[in-house]
Design a protein that fits this description.
The complex is a heterodimer.
Chain A: E1 2-8, E2 11-16, E3 28-36, H1 41-45, E4 56-57, E5 61-69, E6 81-84, E7 87-88, H2 94-97, H3 111-118, E8 124-125, E9 142-145, H4 148-151, E10 152-154, H5 161-164, H6 170-180, E11 188-192, H7 196-207, E12 212-217, H8 220-230, E13 233-236, H9 242-249, E14 257-260, H10 271-281, H11 290-298, E15 304-307, H12 320-325, E16 329-332, H13 337-350, E17 359-364, H14 368-377, E18 384-388
Parallel strand pairs in A: 11-12, 11-14, 12-13, 14-15, 15-16, 17-18
Antiparallel strand pairs in A: 1-2, 1-4, 3-5, 3-9, 3-18, 5-6, 6-10, 7-8
Chain B: H1 2-30, E1 41-45, H2 49-52, H3 60-63, E2 69-75, E3 82-88, H4 95-104, H5 108-125, H6 144-151
Antiparallel strand pairs in B: 1-3, 2-3
Classes of the chains: A alpha/beta, B alpha+beta.
Chain lengths: ~400, ~160
């Protein structure tokens, strides 16, 4: 089959690779119909997460059709149209039973790497390096899905592939940020990042009853999407002072909940960006946490900060003093998608959650390298690029 | 270029942190009267103690560990299931020979960690999850350290 593969730092190519097969009784094999780029892929493409091997297949957010099932699969049949959660979870361990699916004890076949890095190993993820299990990604014609009954969800007939696609990761991640960030009716919520995850976090906050939701970015075309499709307010941090604006819009209190949806390659307009770049060049930090710093600094006293962006290791100038003295609750997680996807599909069915506008570009998988370049450079007002392996 | 530097940074930070922790851990261990004793390695499984010994037998990976191990099974607090611990009765391997065995994937501690992880997967998920194969990757010189880490990924770690 053909697949979009990582060939080295900033080098991608479409190659012929072996077809996946059923290896465990709970596996299913899915024929991928749509698979989409994610901002976190850029950390892999750019070499920021150095656990990739030449030939690894990228992609973790996808929909498709079940074409093969293992002997212990009960929920799915060949022919089911499914959206698959990007994180692999067994559904049986203590973490899965607490609905903390991305922390599954049995989803990562390479646990030692992340145990050394982080103390304990989270679950596995499709197409997200050998630190996360080395599972082949979804930018391919077919993909093996371990624990298929737990991670794959049948798409209602009246929900399109393009809408359901974003339930796989972006919408589930965004919802988790608002849910575990403890958004309540009447809250003011600030979201850093107007990409797909940030937009979905903002929409989740609105649906959970937030009084005002404010999304912060520097790309006007993305902020325009937020205003038109999400129904949230916006701030362009290159045009206004974010802190002053947030104080003004919250009666001087600051946002109740701050959601960071940017990750380890954050930009900012202040001197801290130059500082972070210099530290990175001097090999003294791995991640650039500008948006996390801002979220903690601008959050109201006693408020909640949720980190949705992907970070790899260590950061500098973490505002521990602000966090402690303001009594903040700071939380983060990879996405517990299995917990949210059925509900998200229902909301998509009702039209409460729309995602099609995020797919600014749809192209055949053979154009994958071009699609990632466009996605990385944010040219042609690109938000997300959807690949069709059968196209 | 920037990505390569960041990657190098990540590896450098990881290695430095690992080395520092090892030094501190060993210093602490040398001050301890139990320095030469084996440590217990544990997993907690989300099943009851009776399910761990279904039909009176331990899961196969634990049965296969051999006579030079001691196994303990006890309830975990807070409804977290059952703790399964394994200790090497002959003590922890040390020295250059042990380092070589570890590099070759023949260290008995690696065998214990792998058995614990496999037993946990069998008890909880009902199967031992296989990594994807056939793989899609190609061997490269720069990829050698990662290949080694992957080869020993189930036998290494913090347990």
């Amino acid at each position: 089959m053909k697949a979009l593969t990582w060939q080295g730092v900033n080098k991608l190519s479409v190659e012929k690779v072996p077809d996946p097969q059923i290896l465990n009784a709970r596996d299913i094999v899915v024929k991928v119909t749509k698979t989409v780029t994610c901002g976190s892929d850029l950390h892999l493409v750019g070499g920021y997460i150095p656990f990739m091997k030449k030939g690894d297949v990228l992609g973790h957010e996808f929909v498709g059709e079940v074409v093969e099932i293992g002997s212990e699969v009960r929920k799915h049949q060949v022919g089911d149209r499914v959206v698959v959660c990007s994180f692999i979870a067994c559904g049986k361990c203590w973490y899965c039973k607490q609905e903390l699916f991305s922390l599954c004890d049995n989803g990562n076949t390479n646990p030692a790497i992340t145990e050394e890095l982080w103390g304990y190993s989270p679950g596995g993820c499709f197409g997200y390096s050998h630190a996360m299990g080395g599972n082949a990604g979804s930018h391919a014609e077919y993909i093996r899905v371990p624990y298929g009954d737990v991670g794959a969800f049948t798409i209602p007939d009246d929900v399109s592939d393009l809408r359901a696609l974003f339930a796989s990761d972006s919408a589930a991640t965004g919802w988790m940020g608002a849910d575990l960030g403890n958004v309540k009716p009447g809250d003011v919520v600030a979201v850093w990042g107007a990409g797909a995850v940030g937009q979905m976090a903002a929409r989740a906050a609105i649906l959970l009853g937030a009084e005002r939701v404010i999304v912060i970015d520097r790309y006007e075309y993305r902020l325009d999407q937020v205003r038109r499709h999400i129904g949230a307010e916006t701030l362009n941090y290159e045009q206004v002072d974010v802190g002053s604006e947030l104080r003004e819009r919250t009666g001087g209190r600051g946002p109740d909940v701050c959601i960071e949806a940017v990750g380890m390659e954050a930009h900012s307009s202040g001197p801290d960006h130059l500082y972070d770049q210099a530290k990175q060049q001097l090999r003294l930090q791995t991640d650039r946490p500008a948006a996390v710093r801002e979220a903690i600094y601008h959050c109201r006293k006693g408020g909640s900060v949720f980190v949705l962006g992907v970070f790899a290791a260590v950061v500098d100038k973490f505002p521990l003093g602000a966090m402690m003295n303001k009594g903040l609750t700071v939380r983060g997680a990879q996405m517990h998608g299995q917990r949210y996807i059925p509900m998200l599909l229902e909301r998509m069915q009702k039209g409460e959650l729309v995602t099609e506008h995020l797919a600014t570009h749809v192209m055949p998988l053979k154009n994958g390298p071009k699609g990632y370049q466009m996605f990385k450079d944010k040219t042609d007002d690109c938000v997300r690029v959807v690949f069709e392996p059968t196209g | 270029m920037q990505g390569t530097r960041a990657a190098t940074t990540l590896v450098a930070v990881g290695v430095t942190g690992w080395a520092a922790r090892r030094v501190l851990t060993r210093r602490a261990a040398h001050n301890s009267p139990a320095a030469e004793q084996s440590r217990w390695r544990f997993v907690t499984v989300n099943v009851s103690p009776t399910e761990v010994r279904a039909d009176g037998l331990l899961p196969e990976p634990l049965r296969n560990l051999g006579p030079e191990t001691e196994i303990v099974i006890r309830p975990a607090p807070g409804d977290k299931g059952t703790e399964i611990g394994v200790k090497l009765t002959a003590g922890e391997p040390t020295g250059a020979k042990a380092a070589a065995a570890r590099f070759a994937g023949k260290d008995p501690r690696q065998e214990v960690r792998k058995a614990l992880r496999d037993a946990k997967q069998l008890l909880e998920a009902g199967e031992i999850l296989s990594p994807d194969r056939p793989g899609t990757t190609k061997k490269t010189l720069t990829g050698k350290p990662l290949e080694l880490a992957i080869a020993h990924a189930k036998g290494e770690g913090k347990q």
